[in-house]
Amino acid sequence: MSLKERLEDLEINERTYRELYNSQREAEIQFKKREPETVEEAKQIFEDMKKTPDHHTMLHMYKRAGVEPIKLAKERGITLPTDKPPLDPKTQEALDALQTPINVRAINMRPLRRAAEHGVPVCDFQLRSYSIRNLEFFADFAVRAAYYMGLPARGPIPLPKITERWTVPRSNFIFKKSQENFERVTMRRLVQIQDGHPDVVKAWLAFLTKHQYHGVGMKANIWEYESLDAATNVGVEVKEGEYTGRREKAMLDKVQEILEGQGYKEAMKQYESPVELRP
User: Fold this and answer.
1) Where in the chain is the domain with CATH 3.30.70.600?
2) Can you give the pTM of this predicted structure?
């Protein structure tokens, strides 16, 4: 098969093939001319390269000499064509005067904490997860939320891991010895709230439940402390709607006062609830 027929069979243009072939031949000739045959020719070529070096040759020379061009250029104040021009001195001074907001800077710092006055525990908040990254992230979030809600928090305290293992046969009968092992490690953290008001603690738990992170389970133990007067109300019959002896009496009285106010009634006259009430 001739060359022309072979090119047609491969669907290659004859003109393109000849241009590529000639280019390859010229490159081989140039390479043979540059390849030194003796030591003297190699030294002469090296001297010529040092006098008229190209980019790749310069980089190789700097590397062998232990010189870092970019670092040296910065030390001597040499700018690259790709560098942006410096800003106006007044503009640069105004930018330097600007400070990052404290809430943004606080992200890269340890969470702030409030000191407990009495150290009485009111809530043990436990987090569980199989992923240490999710667990540490949400524990840090819980401590930060406690600070901004005025709750003294301790932790997160690492708790012992829960390791569970199972052995499952891959088959039955004579293949019972072929078994497969599985392991599940549960990591835990504890955040303890001290000297916190029960209502604020419940609001804190509701906030964490609303913004719960995926893959993290939560469990909370809450303690409420009553005054000694609560013992006198033991065994007293409480009627429906009566809240005289409850801790929330002051708040419920304020809510009742707002609901019975004339301004509230006038504002709610034309309000239609989107919720349909059914008997």
Assistant:
1) 105-222
2) 0.50
